[in-house]
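User: Hello! I'm new to structural biology and keep hearing that structure can be predicted from sequence alone. Could you demonstrate with Putative PurR-regulated permease PerM? Please show me the input and the output so I can see what each looks like.

Assistant: Of course. The first part below is the input, the amino acid sequence of Putative PurR-regulated permease PerM. The second part is the output, the predicted structure written as tokens.
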Amino acid sequence: MQVSRGRFWIGVLVAAALFLWLFGGAMFPFVVGMGLAYLLDPLADRLQRLGMSRILAACVILLLFVLLVVLALWILVPVLAQQVAGFLDNMPRYFARLHDLGNAYVRPLFQRFGVEQALNDAQTSVGQIFSQGASWAGGLLKSVWSGSQSVLGVVGLVVIAPVVAFYMLIDWDRMVAAIDSWVPVGQRETVRTLARDIDRAIAGFVRGQSLVCLFLGVFYAVGLSIVGLNFGALIGLGTGFLTFIPYVGSTLGLVVSMTVAIVQFWPEWTWIVAVLAIFVAGQFIEGNIISPVLVGDAVGLHPVWLMFALVAFGSLFGFIGVLIAVPAGAAIGVLARFALRKYLASPYYHDEDRAQPPRMVSPPRGEG
């Protein structure tokens, strides 16, 4: 019976993976809509407890959400579009300036210690890294573009996702109850416990980390703009957005901002230090104050595991895999910990005690 249960759940997972592989591109607006419904469902429940009907609560929430998105785009898009265009136009000048600074200050040091060849190798390696990074970014943008256009294009996404979110907000509790009724009766309590653990992990990370990204984006954008860094708003908001991927956002933002600061401010090193201080302060506040409060320690998503999930699901299912990587990684983590607990409590784990040879018992004195 245990084998048949295992085969059943393995079959469910294989069927889900096959479905994503076949219809991943077509599911993009639906995954976005389901994600919105999942994020906004607690607010709908709270409004419903206050006496508002479920339909009215869904309408109010989605209307406010769309208004906030439109307002944010109306304010940010013109500024960011101008900064993106300016940043791309100035990139050749930045690289040329960095090359000149390297020849003026770094190369003499390498020549003094007789390791100039190491500098040449480093320049070649950096060039290869930039080339591969540009290729990866282009592939990612191509994946995003093709995934969002596979059915009705970007306009279809804008139309379909809110509609899906609206209907799922209305029927969320009924859908959860229906899925619960499909679970085999003998395993229902176990599945419910696992589902609660998965929901706690996903909600704790996604909702908490989203607020962390928002805070850091605003903090870096304002701080870098006050210092006077070129394209400070663009770099700050981009860093905050990429903070959703542990270590990647902060590292990339620090490298880009320090590069721009060196090109812009050198030899006035005080402003360069100020840019570095903004990132140090942001990381200190995020690691010691913001993340412990908003995300907490009970999420159970190790940063390395999260990065692996993003890369693995992205390579398997494209951009749709990146979208589902966090919830899927959280679910796999919960299931893996559950399987480990079962293994540690099983007779198979403790079987080594029985595998020991029986000890010889000496007969009492006087016998034999």
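User: So the tokens describe the shape?

Assistant: Right, they're a compact way of writing down the 3D structure. Reading them back into a model, for example: The longest helix spans residues 54-112.
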